[in-house]
C-alpha cells in the first residue's frame, strides 16, 4: 500500500506544487479530497466537489468497472488510463490519469493524478502502442523498498493479473529454464551483471520470451533494476525453422554453394567442409576461382548470364578438392535474387560411383551388343510372324495315313537332325516344321521362317546372312541376317528349291561348318542353328538337271518327311472344316453349330488340289455368304470334283525349261538365225540367253 502519509500535509503540499489534477476517493468512489487544479477544470468549489462521486466526474466508470479497478489496486498494481471528465456545465474533456492505492490515517484511499497535456498524452500513447505492437512489457524494481512497477503489456505477455507473480523472485515459474532464471536475477541483483536471454515458457504450445535485465547503480550498489520482456515467439519459430532447414542442408551428402555475381562465396553447407577438404576459415574468404582454378573470370561472367537467362543450368564438371584431386560431379546451378542482388546457388553431387557403373555398363554393353541387336531383331521378326500367322494351333488329324507323318515328327523332334519336308502346296509343311521345333530342346529359342520363293534373288543372301552398312548400293545400315536371329534355335527354309545356285554353296557351309560371312563383313560369324527345309518341287530331278547342288540336297535330306495331300487323308476333312468354321464364324460374329451332312459329303467328294489351304478358303467364303446355325451346300461349294489331279505336278518354271530344251533340241541348239530357237519362241536372242542362264540350261550351244 505504500507508507503511512499525513493527509493534511500532502493536501497542502500537492495543492501548492502540482500543476496536475489531484483527487482522492474512498473505496466506494466518493470524493474525499480534490486540489484546486481539478476543481478549476471541473468548475466546482473544493466544498462542492467533496459531495460528488467518481461516477459524477468520469463518464466511463460504472459500479462494475470501479470495483474491478479497486480490486486491481489492492493487489499492488498501479493503473494508467485515459479518462473522460465531465465539467459542472456538462462539457467533456480528456485527461491521462494515474491511479494508485495509498493509505490515509489507516484507511485505503484511491489517488488519481491527471495530466491534461496533449503533448505528454501523444508521446505516452505512442509509447504504449509501440510496446503493445512489439509485445514488449517494461518493469522497474526499487531494491530499497522492493516496489515493482510494470507496464500494462507485462500482464498481457504473461496472461496474468497478479503483479507479485511478475517479480524477479517469482517470475521463474513461467519458464522451463527455472534454475537459469533464478541464477540470472541473483547475479543481476548482487553482482550487477546484465543479461539478455530468450527463455521458453512452460505452456503448451510453448512461447519464447526475450528477457533483458540491467542494473542501475548508486556508487557500487544496485538501487534499481530495469528490464523488459518481449514475446518473440514468431521470430523464434522462424529461427528454429531456419536452423532445422540448415541442419537438413548440412546433413545432405551433396555440396551446396551460394556465390554472388562476383564469385564470392556467401554460403556453403556442412558437406563442403566434411568432404571437400577445405577448412571453414578458408571457405569464409573464398572466391569461385579459389575453389576451382578451372573457372576463369570470363567463364564465370558467361555462367552468371546463362543462369539469369535460363533460371537453372544442369551440367557435368570435374570438381577439384583441397588436395588437388578431381572427381566427376553433376552440378545444378540456379539463379537467386536476394535484396536486389543476383546469386548462384549450386548443388553439386559427386558422381564417381555413377561414372564407374556407367563404365562397367558400357563395357558390358559392348560385350552383349551383338546379342542385344539379335534379340531386338528376333522380337521384330516374331511380331511380324504373329501378324502373318493364320493358325498355329495343334495339327488336326485322325487319319491313319497321317499318323505315320506325325510319328516321324515325334521321332526327329528331340534331335538336332536336319529335316527336309516335301509335299504339295497347302499340305501343312509349315505346321510340321512348327511341331518339330516346339517339341525340340530348342523350343525356348525362336523359330525363324524364310520363304525363298518370295525373296528377290539379289536380296536373298542379305536376308539370310545379313550385311554391313555400305556393303552394296542401298545398304544404309547394318542388317542382321536370319541365321544370326536363329542362333540357338531353328530356321525353316520354305521353298528351298527356289534358292539360286550361287547361294547354295554358302548354305552348305552353314550346314556343314556352322559359320558364314556377312556381306561387307570382315569377321566370320559362327552359329548353332537347326535347319528344317521344305519344297513342293522334285529336288532329285533338279539335281539331275543341275539346278540344285547334289551335296546340298544330301545334306538337307538327312531325315525326309513327306506331307501327304488332303485327298490322301479325307477322313480329316470334316474335322478341319469344323475347325475352320468355328474360327471364321467367331471372327465374323456369327454362330454356326456345324456343317450339314450334305455339305460334308460334297467336301469329301472333292479332291482339293489346293489341299488344306483351299479347304480353309472355302469355309471362310461360306461363313461370309451363308446364314443359319447349320452350314449347308451353297454357291461356295466347288463345281467340279475332278480336275485331273496327279501327283506329278511341275512348276511353271520347270515347264518353261522343258519346253525351251525341247525347242533347242529341235533346232540342234541353234539360238539365233531364221531357224533358231529364238525365232520359233518369238524372243529376242539376248532375252533367251538370259532365261537359259537363269533356268540352268548350260549345254554347249552352237551359234551357227
Structure notes:
By secondary structure, the protein is an alpha+beta fold. The chain contains 27 helices and 25 strands. Strands 1, 2, 3, 4, 5 and 6 form a 6-stranded mixed beta sheet that branches. A 5-stranded antiparallel beta sheet has the order 8-7-11-10-9, sandwiched between helices. The radius of gyration is 56 Å and the shape is elongated. Residues 1-5, 118-127, 386-393 and 641-646 have low confidence and may be disordered.
List the helices and strands and how they pair.
Layout: E1 4-5, H1 7-17, E2 21-25, E3 31-34, H2 36-42, H3 46-49, H4 54-57, H5 63-74, E4 79-86, E5 92-104, E6 107-115, H6 118-133, E7 136-142, E8 147-150, H7 152-158, H8 178-191, E9 195-200, E10 208-218, E11 221-231, H9 233-251, E12 255-260, E13 265-268, H10 270-276, H11 280-283, H12 288-291, H13 297-310, E14 312-320, E15 326-338, E16 341-350, H14 352-388, H15 400-413, E17 419-422, H16 429-438, E18 447-451, H17 460-465, H18 482-485, E19 490-494, H19 501-513, E20 515-517, E21 524-526, E22 530-535, H20 539-544, H21 550-556, E23 559-562, H22 573-588, E24 594-595, H23 597-604, H24 611-625, E25 630-631, H25 652-666, H26 677-680, H27 685-694
Parallel strand pairs: 1-5, 17-22, 17-23, 18-19, 19-22, 24-25
Antiparallel strand pairs: 2-3, 2-6, 4-5, 5-6, 7-8, 7-11, 9-10, 10-11, 12-13, 12-16, 14-15, 15-16, 20-21
Helix pairs in contact: 15-16, 19-21, 22-24
